[in-house]
Amino acid sequence: MIRVMRNEGLPTQVACRVLGVSESGFYAWRTRPPSARAIRHAWLTDLIHQIHQQSRGTYGALRVHAELKLGYGVGVGHNAVAMLMRRAGLAGLSGSRGRKRLIKPLDTPLDLVDRNFVRSQPDRLWVTDVERHEAFSNRAVVGGRRLVSVAAGTLNLGAA
What we know:
The protein is an alpha+beta fold. The chain is built from six helices and four strands. Strand 1 and strand 2 form a beta hairpin.
């Protein structure tokens, strides 16, 4: 940051004062070799880039971490992998892993009554209103009354 400020024409002394850094600390930092952590982070970032490219950009931090630990035998924390991926601008694909399925619309059944609700004889036309049907529990609600079970043509009406 101080280098950027110096390139914009600010003196080093002013840039250090604004950022709250001593001038001697800045000059010592410029000549200091990189720390072991910085070297390890650079190495890990290269590995992370490689794994991320091999996954065609799909792996996120958790999968990259698993690949580092299990595939490469590198001991590293998952938060460190997430931090290095964030700094490198890498992210995995989010969302469902399953393939997208097209839901085909159901064909509407034929109108067997032709909307003619007048009957000529008793027991010729039966009409009902099904509000809800739970297939797995074999229960249905018909006309506001709960059917306890629907099996083999028998209907046991329970209390609503």
